[in-house]
Amino acid sequence: MIINSQLQVLSSQLDGELHFDDLAKTLYATDASVYRMMPLAVALPKTKADIKCLIDFARVHNTSLIPRTAGTSLAGQCVGSGIVVDVSKYFNKIVDINEKKRTVTVQPGVVRDELNNYLKPFGLFFGPNTSTSNRCMIGGMVGNNSSGTTSIKYGVTRDKVLALDVILSDGSEAVFSSVSMESFQEKMRSSTLEGQIYKTIYSELKEEHIQKQIKDNFPKPQIHRRNTGYAIDELLKNEIFDTSPDAFNMCALLSGSEGTLAFTTQITLQLDKLPPSKNIMIAAHFESIESCLDAVSLVMNHDLYACEMLDKTILDLTKYNTKQQANRQFLEGDPEAILMCELRSDNEEELKRLSQSLIVDLQNSNLSYANVLLEDAMIDRANDLRKAGLGLLGNMIGDEKTAACIEDTAVALEDLSSYIKAFSELMKKYDQKPVYYAHAGAGELHLRPILNLKKKADVVLFREITTDVAHLVKRYNGSMSGEHGDGIVRAEFIPMMIGESNYEVLKRIKSIFDPENIFNPGKIIDAFPMDESLRYEPGRQEPEIETVLDFSKSLGILREAEKCNGSGDCRKLPEFGGTMCPSYRATRNEKDTTRARANALREFLTHSEKANKFDHDELKTVFDLCLSCKACVSECPSSVDVASLKAEFQYQYQKANGVSWRTKLFAYNNRLNKFGSHFPRVTNFIFSNVLMSSILKKTFGISNKRTLPLLSSKNLYKVLQNSKNELNNNDYIKTIYLFNDEFTNYLDTSIGIDAITLLQGLNYEVKIIKHHESGRAFLSKGLLDQAKDFANKNVSLFKELISEDTPLVGIEPSAILTFKDEYLRLADDKESAEHLAKHTFLIEEFIQQEIEFGNISSDQFTLEHETIKFHGHCHQKALANQMSSFTILNLPKNYQVDIIPSGCCGMAGSFGYEKEHYEISMEIGEQTLFPAVRKTNNEILISANGTSCRHQIKDGTGREALHPITILKQALI
Q: How far, in Å, are 130, 195, 383 from residue 281 at the CA level?
């Protein structure tokens, strides 16, 4: 048994990191599959010497190494009881490019889309394109032999791998690449492990009857998407074993081997020229799955670059995801399935001809009822909708989920329709209506049964359904795995799929590569049982957990956390847009992903034996760098609301551990501002004086590098008391109630005045009543009793006043959007809270709506020229729409507005003030926002609608950012 002292010694020998605390092991116990295995430790190697050290440790101590990149495996490849070796943090360099030969050499932790962004200026790209392409890594793609949408045109990863630099199980290094007959024979004469591998491969595959046995039993060769065991059938296609002139390359075997044969440190890939620049997509709509599949052969007669299928189950799930609602606008009617057929050409006329030819064929077939032509941004939106598909399946409320077990079967294209009909009949036996999704043009559909793997009976079905489907796939000489790999879920069925004799060949190959079974055991060879080591213990007693926030829509907080299926969207980098997850983007640590927070909470709520299951320092650690930006609500396909999970955790944890003085300072800052506003000059002197502010910062743990916000000379209520008569106007379009939030009232009074002036100038009656603060500061610090009190009071106060004709409008996004978000979880009067939410608007949203109604026009604004760069608040992006700010800033005819694709600014209320978070806060700002602001000259206006965002921009760049309302008010004629 390995003890911590031995792991500590190992840690001291590594240049990289080794973690063996409970939190780290918990976070790496799962991937995107249904499996959970607690690892011994987690290693993040920096050098090849680190990997050799880990191999030596595993060999000496009889443990194993489980290679991992993004951890998005659907079959359990990344889980195991040994040391998980995560190469994503340090082995992520692009080593070399040869433009002439069209090759690139990378380390395994390079993200696929990151690589293609690098290659684009060279006119090159790496073809295989998975739905996880903005976070999956090349090492994982090689391990799984990934394919994606482009395989019908550009092939699979195995087709692209030219060379692999690996470390073998004895710690020796080898480079596998194309070798001639002479080189092959020379390698066989070597006494090294590499030489023994070549000798074994030759002796195993040289006999004709063995080759025939392989060809007869492996999947049909025309199925180019297949990962059933080791690809020994591919090793036969060269001059060593065939009449083919091609050279032998061991990479064909290692591609798809799931890290079970060697540890890869460097990969050389063959690249393709960029596809034609112009594209069109035809979204064919069908009234049945059968007619959709019958159309596949027809559309594949056209020169398609992609042919993807989505069924009604997934399309319906997109209705409930904020981001995907906009992406589904191209749908006509209520299709049972759609086929997304992409055409490309550099010639626009040729592209039109190709698209019309496809549409005519579809129309003549009478299979589809609508054929929608998509261009430009609509294609991107449709592809985003498709890519979100697997993750969206996690949106199913409750314990029944789509189970990944038979989701990767592939058959020859001519067998597809017949296979699916037989499959559907089989599913009727189990009373299943499976989900149909994926790569129809390649003969592969991601078919999923809906099961509750918390129930023992459904775990039995899990095995029975998989077994029956394996027999069906074998009947068609198909592949049980097209691209997701065997992992744990399918490895048991490899002997059935390729025959026992062939399986024995695989076992001997594994044995020569890895005689002590240290590389990813239980995958492909000597498989772990597919119905054990599940994420949930079947038949368990579900914990009952009381919360202040209402998680009833997810059937409780535990199921809210369980919505995370591990798809890893939260690991996408800044260059791919969006906001999620700002802390991961800064640290590149798994601990700081949305996925980690949901997984950790699920783990402790499920397994903790404490009365207060939240009372764990590990949870405090994992939530520490969550900025509560709420990007996960809209960008996570499963819409896991980690900001709400964090708020509830803080509340419950503080019940057991108390509330710090600093937490109280930030939570009660509105009261402090109210007190300070009686003496604003004195307060501002204290906040701005170097000596006095330093004492204040040191006392309360605020970064000394951070400036403190200054109070306005008068709060907005006081200003209004002195100008009541100016509000009286009988000639108005509509009456609105302006929410005088706590930030506008004391810190940004001038913006409040600008808002009133603008709205009145546009002929709206503005009413402001004495109300309570929003409670945002209390929510951010987990003081939910106080936040709930404010929610109830404000709902009670406004419920009789607010309607479609008299909406509630707010200036500060984080404050006004509590009415549309947290109040729905906090308020006792749910009906009134929901009514309020429907008629509450961010001020930019309200003005945008009035523009659409024809009540506001460009004629009311200046003709002067301005250029504006706008940064949107995170809560606006997640819960509303930053296009409203863009729209209103464009009201003046000669204003040119750009949205900075900036993600989170990094301030996030009090987060950026706290001394331990200051550096991370600024790193987040430096990702996109600060550089974009610095590039602008002083004549360009910087705009931001969040008070924290404006403060962060000032501290990070020295530039003053204006609220859109201030800019628009100044432009009013």
A: 18, 50, 10
Task: Name the 3-class secondary structure at 380.
Answer: helix
Residue 704, number of CB atoms within 10 A of its CB:
11
Q: Are 894 and 884 in contact (CB under 8 A)?
A: no
Nearest one of 384, 393, 438, 431 to 411, comparing CA atoms: 438
Task: Say if strands 734-739 and 764-767 run parallel, antiparallel, or are unpaired.
Answer: parallel
* Contact of 947 with 867, CB cutoff 8 Å: no
Secondary structure (DSSP) of 185-248: HHHHT--SHHHHHHHHHHHHH-SHHHHHHHHHHSPPTT--S--SSS-TTGGGSSTTTSS--PPE
Q: What are phi and psi of 943, to 5 degrees?
A: -125, 140
Joined tokens for residue 403:
């189970």
Rounded to whole angstroms, what are the CA distances from 27 to 24, 42, 111, 853, 956?
5, 9, 21, 50, 33
The answer to whether the pTM exceeds 0.85 is: yes
Closest by CA to 158, choosing from 58, 78, 74, 226, is 226
pLDDT average per 10 residues of sequence, the chain (973 residues): 91 98 97 97 98 98 97 96 98 98 98 97 95 95 92 94 98 98 96 98 97 96 91 96 94 98 98 95 95 93 93 85 84 95 95 96 96 94 81 76 91 91 92 83 87 96 97 96 95 97 98 98 97 95 94 96 94 94 96 97 96 97 97 91 98 97 96 94 95 94 96 92 60 95 97 97 96 98 98 98 97 98 98 98 98 96 97 96 96 97 95 97 97 96 98 97 98 95
Per DSSP bridges, beta strands 248-249 and 94-98 are unpaired
Helices (H) and strands (E) in the chain, counts: 47, 27
Is there a contact between 646 and 628 (Cβ–Cβ < 8 Å)?
yes
Sheet of 17-19, strand order:
17-19, 41-44, 83-86, 65-68
Residue reference for tokens 């698209």: 355
C-alpha torsion sign, points 583, 588, 592, 595 = positive
DSSP 589-604: -GGGSHHHHHHHHHHH
| Residues 393 and 401: beta-carbon distance below 8 Å | yes
Q: DSSP labels for 23-83?
A: HHHHHTSB-SSSBB---SEEEE--SHHHHHHHHHHHHHTT--EEEESS---SSSTT--SSE
Cβ neighbours of residue 50 closer than 8 Å, sequence gap 6 or more:
14, 15, 16, 43
Say which residues have a Cβ less than 8 Å from residue 132's Cβ, sequence separation at least 6.
70, 72, 387, 567, 568
User: Are 339 and 307 a contacting pair, CB within 8 Å?
Assistant: yes
- Cβ atoms of 806 and 774 within 8 Å: the answer is no
Q: What size, in residues, is the chain?
A: 973
Place of tokens 């549309």: 820
- Confirm if 68 and 27 have CB atoms less than 8 A apart: no
- CA atoms of 759 and 772, how far apart (whole Å): 22
The vertex-90 CA angle with 87 and 96, nearest 5°, equals 100
- The single residue listed with the structure tokens 């440790």 is 57
Euclidean distance between CA atoms 481 and 253, whole angstroms: 16
CA–CA separation, 695 and 922 (whole Å): 22
Question: Which token pair is 21?
Answer: 């605390």
Return the H-helix or E-strand segment holding 98.
Answer: strand 94-98
Q: Which residue has the tokens 């969206």?
A: 392
Structure tokens at 249: 């390359």
Helix axes 594-607, 642-657, angle to 10 degrees: 50
321 vs 733: CA distance, rounded Å: 34
Pair type for strands 808-810 and 840-842: parallel
